[in-house]
Write a structure and sequence with these properties.
Elements (H helix, E strand, L loop, with lengths): L2 H14 L23 H10 L5 H16 L9 H9 L17
Length: about 100
């Protein structure tokens, strides 16, 4: 899978997770395999393809995309200003497709 496909899969997994909107304060809970969330494989693959990518980069992309996809503020504390911040966040041009393409689900 390429970077886009891996991120798409992570977004799908988080959308399927009922408690995604709860516990958002713990930003890294989506990366904890012991909670039954099968994200570690995809994150490891992303890191193989792009060693500079961080968990925070991935988290920000997922949150921004989920916010956009659901078209309402289901993620507490994420308003329009924070969404713009997430969309602009592209440290070292890591994920170039975010501003130009949809991750069609």
């Amino acid at each position: 899978m390429n970077e886009k496909e891996l991120l798409k899969k992570l977004v799908q997994l988080t959308l399927e997770k009922n408690n995604w909107c709860e516990g958002l304060g713990n930003r890294m809970f989506i990366f904890e395999s012991e909670k039954g969330f099968p994200a570690c494989f995809f994150i490891d693959e992303l890191k193989k393809q792009n060693p500079k990518i961080t968990k925070e980069d991935i988290f920000r992309i997922i949150v921004a995309y989920q916010h956009k996809k659901t078209e309402h503020k289901v993620l507490s504390g994420i308003g329009e200003e924070r969404l713009k911040e997430y969309q602009k966040y592209n440290k070292n041009q890591l994920i170039k497709f975010w501003e130009t393409e949809e991750l069609d689900l």
